[in-house]
Write a structure and sequence with these properties.
The chain is α/β, with parallel strands linked by helices and 262 residues long. The chain has eight helices and seven strands.
Length: 262
């Protein structure tokens, strides 16, 4: 029995793929036979070591906030691999700040990466997917994104990040609605509080946050990159083919405690 979950030889692009979530997801997909191409901002020599470690087949140095660049590089993947089966828009930035702290330029920068960059990547990927023949289950391609539990449950102190993820959630629903009949599935994973990625950096900068945030998680432990990689692997696989327009919250229950959060 083939246990690849329908992922063997699938061409997958992951933005922000050298980070914790991107790396864990790449390792899982690669182990199932997918060919994963990483977009990130590491210098080529550093990235080479990283992609070998996680099993990616190629690396493109791409800034998701540079909208023409991300579209050009997705098209280059199509030229090299002749298709794109799955796009995972994972790159993001999450500077701290409240309404009165953030300048117009800072808002434009954050939304440009976290939301507009995903829109432009989706636009290019969908254009290609519509040209592709559907597989035996009628699927032409999948768009997936890294959202966050704060997209639906606001948390003080990171206003532009929260707003961008709320916008991303609705983007998922709108694209899913429009392209379901054409065989394109669109979903997102919404991590909770991870001891990884942007949150781990915040813990390093403000150690008191670790204890505070731990009280928000009913299961009693922080999430890991592997938890999120598992969720993405499910959404990439044939097992999720009947799902579209969904925000899969993987948060250890922290969204259940939002009334206590301040």
């Amino acid at each position: 029995m083939n246990d690849s979950r329908g992922l063997e030889d699938k061409v997958v692009v992951i933005t922000g793929g050298c980070g914790d979530i991107g790396g864990a997801t790449t390792q899982k997909l690669a182990s199932l036979g997918a060919r994963v191409i990483i977009f990130d901002l590491l210098e080529e020599e550093v990235a080479k070591t990283r992609i070998e470690e996680i099993g990616a087949v190629a690396y493109h140095r791409v800034d998701q906030g540079d909208h023409s660049q991300i579209q050009e590089e997705i098209n280059r993947v199509v030229q090299d691999f002749h298709k794109i089966d799955i796009l995972i828009g994972n790159a993001a930035m999450g500077p701290p700040g409240d309404l009165l702290d953030r300048t117009a330029e800072e808002w434009i920068s954050s939304l440009g990466v976290n939301l507009v960059g995903c829109i432009m990547a989706a636009q290019t990927a969908v254009t290609q997917m519509l040209r592709q023949e559907p597989d035996e289950e009628g699927i032409r391609g999948k768009l997936l994104f890294t959202s966050s539990w704060v997209g639906q449950h606001p948390r003080p102190g990171a206003i532009d990040y929260c707003v961008s993820k709320a916008g991303l959630d609705h983007l998922v629903r709108l694209i899913a609605q429009q392209y379901a009949a054409q065989g394109i599935r669109v979903n997102a994973v919404a991590p909770g509080i991870l001891d990884a990625g942007l949150t781990r950096k915040a813990f390093q900068q403000q150690p008191a946050l670790r204890k505070k945030f731990s009280t928000w998680i009913p299961v009693g432990e922080f999430g890991t990159s592997e938890h999120i990689g598992d969720a993405f692997t499910f959404l990439c696989s044939r097992e999720s083919n009947y799902m579209t327009g969904q925000i899969l919250c993987v948060d250890g229950g922290c969204s259940l405690t939002t009334g206590k959060i301040s």
